Amino acid sequence: MIRSELLQALARENPGLRAEEVERVLDVFFDEISERLAKGGRVELRGFGAFSTRTRDARQGRNPRTGESVSVPGKKVPYFKPGKEMRQRLNGG
Questions:
Q1: 46 and 91 part of one domain
Q2: Are 40 and 71 in contact, with CB atoms under 8 Å apart?
Q3: Rounded mean pLDDT of 68-92?
């Protein structure tokens, strides 16, 4: 599913909202998750899962075009852990 499909589904489920309002709700939802993760926090949506960040250590990589060794700095990456209900739904339980 892409963003536009999600917006259409939300609009169908909420006919009392204008398209601009549905889009604003979705923007706020994603912005709040992103902002919390950027501050090092965690976002838990019961029944769905939890978003958090993980730290990747610095390492030596290789440029695939030249084969040259390059230094890859450490960084934070987003991580999603599905909730129990989500895992059960995916596995037919």
A1: yes
A2: no
A3: 95
Distance between CA atoms of 1 and 8, rounded to whole angstroms?
11
Structure tokens at 24: 């604003």
Place of tokens 């993980």: 54
What are the tens digits of pLDDT across the range 51-70?
999 999 999 999 999 999 99
* Residue 50 sits in the same domain as residue 7: no
- What string of DSSP letters covers 35-89? HHHHTT--EEETTTEEEEEEEEPPEEEE-TTT--EEEE--EEEEEEEE-HHHHHH
Pairing label, strands 49-56, 69-72: unpaired
| Residue 51 and residue 75 in one domain | yes
Long-range contacts of 40-45 (CB under 8 A, 24+ apart): 45/83
Q: Find tokens 């992103």 and name the residue.
A: 34
